[in-house]
Design goal:
It is globular and about 70 Å long. The longest helix has 23 residues, at 210-232. The protein has a 6-stranded parallel sheet, with helices on one face. A two-stranded antiparallel sheet has the order 6-7. By secondary structure, it is α/β, with parallel strands linked by helices. The protein has helices at 22-28, 42-45, 48-58, 75-88, 99-109, 118-122, 184-202, 210-232, 237-251, 264-275, 281-299, 303-314, 323-340, 354-364, 380-390, and strands spanning 11-14, 34-37, 64-66, 92-97, 133-138, 150-155, 158-163, 171-174. The structure holds 5,6-dihydroxy-NADP (NZQ) and zinc ion (ZN). Zinc ion binds at residues 143, 193, 196-197, 266, 281.
């Protein structure tokens, strides 16, 4: 097990009805006026915003509201959010939604008092030393942004993440019932994203971390099973609760602890949804991940990890005589599961084609200047090869 740092300070309030406590939670922390940030309107339509407003009023808090955060949020909207919060005299941002609303609020929070631009922070032109408060009411189990140290914005077709310990929200309210209203496609995208945050870290270059391997395999098996149940029965509370808690555990640092790993397939996906913001993050990942694994298998790389992945996560029968067959079966099981969720399997199904491949490979590696230390180091040529495997 390698040395690691881990600090997950976000206070989690998990379970039925917990959103009704938001006023008290904010007042106890000493904040006076939250800006409620939300997306395209699902939080209003489901009645959630009404309950949040009532709780804030009962706690004697003033508040302002700003809807309209887009999926795959833009730096421009985060900047507008910061200006609006400043004009309204807000001292914290309350994100009511999924990864997009949360990430936009996280980045805006650095800019309310400083007047900085969120994109300058993302591109590391300025380094924040503080922020106004950030709280979350989560409505989709997916990104883990509710406790993670990252936030992702898009600016002029470039989608980039910013990681910092300051990105971890002050608190996250997680009521699995709030996810009952999700369209099946979004539920499925979330399931893929949750799995990916653990599976990618599982494909590490040091295979000596038995504890974290076991945590990861257990998490993935629970998510695969809960995912099936939530797709079949959207109001299955236990399935939704498993997905929601797993979403946080998958991306709060737990499954990367002591491992030499990184989210390199995520880098490839971000080029897809950066190119076309209508592509949902989880849908892009569903296309990239089997191709990424196939790329290793074709090179005979990472065999030990791929075998363990197939047997311990996908229940493939071990076959010591024919390891290649076991690895292939693991990749096919992954594809079949994603497909059973209704996820796309090829670039064409995402609306991308041949001409996009070189563009994405260039952007992902800054024109070949960057090589990611994955099991096979991934530079421009390797990124292009993986994108070609995504073509089907
Ligand atoms: O905008 P509204 O109307 O709310 O609708 C949203 C949106 O259309 C809808 N939705 C959310 N909760 C709902 C609901 N509809 C009905 N009922 C509910 N309860 O779902 C759609 C997708 O929402 P979004 O927030 O975009 O989804 P997600 O949570 O998957 O976030 C994706 C964004 O997070 C980034 C992704 O790249 C993408 O930009 N990521 C953030 C990470 C982080 N900060 O740690 C890590 C991830 O790897 C990821 O990159
Ligand atoms: Zn993700």
């Amino acid at each position: 097990m390698l040395n690691f740092d881990l600090c997950t300070p976000t206070e989690v309030f998990f379970g039925r009805g917990r959103e009704n406590e938001v006023g008290g939670i904010i007042a106890r922390r000493g904040y006076k006026k939250p800006l409620i940030c939300y997306g395209g309107g699902s939080a209003r339509r489901t009645g959630l915003l009404g309950r949040v407003e009532a709780s804030l009023e009962a706690a004697g808090l003033e508040y302002a509201e700003l809807g309209g955060t887009q999926a795959n949020p833009t730096a421009e909207f985060a900047s507008y959010t910061a200006r609006f919060a400043r004009e309204q005299g807000c001292d914290m941002l309350l994100a009511v939604g999924g990864g997009s609303v949360i990430d936009s609020a996280k980045m805006a929070a650095y800019c309310v008092e400083t007047g900085w631009e969120p994109w300058d922070i993302t591109m590391k032109r300025v380094k924040p030393a503080g922020r106004v408060g950030v709280g979350v009411i989560l409505t989709i189990a997916a990104t883990g942004s509710e406790t993670s140290n990252s936030a992702v914005l898009t600016h002029e077709g470039l989608k980039r993440g910013f990681s910092s310990q300051l990105n971890r929200p002050d608190f996250a309210i997680m009521n699995p019932e709030l996810t009952f209203s999700l369209p099946p496609y979004q539920t499925a995208c979330g399931i893929v994203d949750i799995l990916m945050h653990t599976m990618e870290r599982y494909m590490c270059t040091n295979g000596d971390n038995e504890l974290v391997d076991n945590i990861s395999e257990g998490l993935c098996r629970a998510v695969i099973s809960a995912g099936r149940r939530a797709m079949a029965e959207p109001e299955d509370y236990e399935a939704r609760a498993t997905l929601m808690y797993a979403g946080s555990l998958s991306h709060n640092g737990l499954t990367g602890a002591g491992r030499e790993c990184g989210l390199w397939a995520h880098k490839l996906e971000h080029e897809m949804s950066g190119l076309d913001p209508k592509i949902a993050h989880g849908a892009g990942l569903a296309v990239v991940w089997p191709a990424y694994l196939r790329f290793f298998a074709n090179r005979g790389a990472g065999q030990g990890r791929l075998l363990r992945y197939a047997v311990n996560i996908w229940n493939v029968e071990p076959d010591f005589e024919h390891p290649g067959r076991v690895i292939d079966a693991g990749i096919e099981a992954t594809k079949a599961y994603f497909s059973s969720l209704g996820m796309p399997g090829t670039l064409a199904e995402l609306g991308l084609d041949e001409k996009d491949i070189a563009v994405m490979a260039d952007k992902c590696t800054s024109g070949g200047a960057v090589t990611y230390p994955s099991i096979v180091p991934m530079g421009r040529a390797e990124a292009e090869e993986i994108f070609r495997l995504c073509a089907g």
